[in-house]
Amino acid sequence: MDRQAERGRQAERTEQAEQAGRDGQVERKPARERAERRTAREQVEQRAMRRAVELAAERLGLTGANPTVGCVVLDDRLRVVGEGSHRHDGEPHAEVVALAAAGTRARGGTAVVTLEPCAHTGRTGPCTEALRAAGVARVVYAVADPTSRAGGGAAVLAAAGIAVEGGLLAAEATRANRYWLTNATRLRPWVTWKFGATLDGRIAAADGSSRWITSAAARADAHLLRARHGAVLVGAGTVRTDDPHLGVRHGVAGPAPVRVVVAADPSRLPATARVFDGSARTLLAVPERFARAAAPPGAELLPIGPPDSPPDDPSAASDGGSDGGSDGGQVDPRALLSALLGLGIRSVLVEGGPRTAARLLAAGCVDEAVGHLAPALLGAGPALLGDLGIATIGGALRWEFRAAEPVGPDLRVSVVPVPDLPVPDLPGEGAPGEGALVGAGGWTA
C-alpha cells in the first residue's frame, strides 16, 4: 500500500515538473521572439546605416560649410521607404530629403542618419522638428554633433518621446564626414598630402626631369582629388620649377579649388606663373613682414604670423619643389591652416615639394597621405619627403594603410596617422570642439 502511494506521489511530481517545463517554454518563447526581432532590427539598421554612409561620402567636399550627411528612413515594418543626403548650403538637410521621399510611410518608423540631427534654426528649420512632425518613432545616428549651436538633437528627440540610439558605425560615418568634423574638433581644414613617386621614393631624376613619373591614369585620379578639396597648396619652389596650373582638368567635373602658394619672399616668384592666370582664386601666403608687398596680378596676398621659425628647426627649410629651391619655409603651418579655415576653406590638398610636406608633417597637420607609386626605379634624385629631424627608428612617424589599389600601371596607396581622426564623443559635457564652428562660420543651413 505504501509502495502504491509512493508511486502515486512520484507520478504527481512528474506531472508537475512536466507542466512547469511547458509553462517555462511558454514564458521563454516571447523572450526568444523579442530577442530575434531585436537582432533582425539591428541587422536592418546596420544595412541602412551603411547606405546612409555611402550617401554622405558621395557629397564629401561638395557641401560648402555644412557637414556631409546621409539618411535612410525605414517604415514600421523595417522596409526602406526613403533616403537622401545634404547637397549644399541652404538646401534641405539629409533627414528632410529622406522624410520627403518617405511621406506618410515614415510614421511609426525609424530614421537612420550619419550625424546627430540638428536642433537649431538656420536657413532651414531644425531636423529634430521635421522628425517629430513626421511621426518617426525611433532615430539611430552614428556620430554626435560636436558643436554647441547645432548639437543637442538627441536630447530634444528623447524629450519628444522618440527612442534615440547613437554610435552605430561611428568610425565609417566619421570617415565620410571627415572634413567638417576636423573643422569642428581641430579648428583647421582637413589636410591631404598627395604625391607621385617611383618605388624608391623619388619625385624627379637627378637632372630634375619629372614628366612623367606616373601614368595618365594616375594623373587623372589626382585631378579627382583636387575636385574634392577646397584648396590646393604648393610652395614657391614648386611654382618656379614645375609651373603647375593646379586646376581641375583631365575631363574631371568639379569646382575649381582655391590655389594657395606659400612663399618666404614673394618677389622671387615669376609673375608669369600659371597659378597667377586668374582662372581661379589664388592666395599667396607670406610672412607678416611682407604684408605690404605687392601681390602678383591674379593673386591675393595672405600675410601669416608668426613670421619666422627657429633657425634650428629642420622643418623650417624651404619647399624644394622638384628642384630643391630655397624659400617658402617661414610661414607657420598651423597659423596658415587656421587662416584658410577662416576664409571658408574646409579641406586642403598639399601638392608641394618635399620641404612643404615635411613642414606640415612635423607640425602634425597632415590627416591623410595619398600616393601614386610608379613601378620605376631611379636610385638618385629628390626624395618625396624632406628632413623631419628624426634620428632613430623609434622616432618614426607611424601610419597605417587604409587602401591600396592599382590605377593603370601604378599603385594608389592611402595611409593615415595612427590613430586616425577620433570619433567625437556622444552628447555630454566636454564634447570636443564645443561651439567651435560658431566662430568659423558654423552651419549656414
UniProtKB/TrEMBL annotation:
Database matches in InterPro entries: APOBEC/CMP_deaminase_Zn-bd, CMP_dCMP_dom, Cytidine_deaminase-like, DHFR-like_dom_sf, Eubact_RibD, RibDG_C, Riboflavin_Biosynth_HTPR
UniProt feature, compositional bias: Pro residues: 304-313
CDD domains: Riboflavin_deaminase-reductase
Keywords for the protein's UniProt record, in alphabetical order: Metal-binding, Multifunctional enzyme, NADP, Oxidoreductase, Riboflavin biosynthesis, Zinc
Region (Disordered): 1-46, 298-331
Domain CMP/dCMP-type deaminase residues, every copy: 43-165
Domain of life, per lineage: Bacteria
Name of the protein this chain belongs to: Riboflavin biosynthesis protein RibD
Annotated organism of origin: Kitasatospora cineracea
